[in-house]
Amino acid sequence: MTDVVDPATRSRMMSGIKGKNTSPEVMIRKALHARGFRFRLYVKTLPGKPDLILPKYKTVILVHGCFWHGHNCRYFKVPKTRTAFWLDKIAHNRARDEREYLALKALGWRVLVVWECAVRAARRDAGFQLVEFIAGWLRGEDEEAQISERGVEGL
Predict the structure, then answer these.
(1) Which one of 6, 25, 75, 148 counts the least CB within 10 Å of its CB?
(2) Torsion, CA 33, CA 37, CA 41, CA 42, rounded to 10
(3) What torsion do the CA atoms of 74, 59, 29, 150 make, to the nearest 10 degrees?
(4) How far apart are CA 96 and CA 55, in angstroms?
(5) Angle at 89 between CA 122 and CA 19, to 5 degrees
(6) What is the pLDDT of residues 50-59, one digit of tens each?
(7) pLDDT tens profile 98-125
(8) Helix H segments across the chain?
(9) CA-CA distance, 70 to 78, in Å (whole number)?
(10) Residue 117's pLDDT is what?
């Protein structure tokens, strides 16, 4: 199957996809800041330049897009065009995520992964207490966790 748009249009569309300051990241940052949490962003000296770093809690928060990181949820669908390319790209992203996660753990950091589907669920359903989950986890002692639309899970 071929692409439905010409290469120039596809290039323009792909170049518009942000890697920093995405809307899920900004939503989480604003909510945590309003609750008194202070953090740094994209520290270059840490593996993978994590999205949020909370030194007081020795914690990093990684906000992952479900498509780009191959999350097993309803928002991840393998594209019908250039399928082999996308499967390879997502596999490489997952391998890089794993390397960076292990490097952060080896340095003694607690790691929380927040999936895009959790942010979407929080926006859609006021009963989905995403920021409360995150705040509770930060104040707790668990070394690692991930939050998806299914709730808080271990890694």
Answers:
(1) 6
(2) -140
(3) 20
(4) 23
(5) 50
(6) 999 999 999 9
(7) 999 999 999 999 999 999 999 999 988 8
(8) 7-15, 23-34, 83-106, 116-124, 130-139
(9) 9
(10) 94
Type of residue at 144: E
Residue 23 neighbours by CB under 8 Å, 6+ apart: 119
SS3 content of the chain, % helix, strand, coil (to 5): 45, 15, 40
Residue 112 CA: distances (Å) to CA of 12, 14, 34, 81: 32, 27, 19, 33
- Among candidate residues 41, 143, 138, 65, the one with its CA nearest the CA of residue 102: 143
Residue 153 has a pLDDT of 75
Residue 102 CA to residue 115 CA, distance in Å, equals 18
β-pair partners for 113: 62, 146
The first and second tokens of residue 35, run together, are 């609750």
What's the confidence (pLDDT) of residue 17?
64
**pTM given for the model:** 0.86
Phi/psi of residue 148, each to 5°?
Answer: -125, -170
- Which residues, given as ranges, of the chain have pLDDT below 50? none
CB 104 within 8 A of CB 60: yes
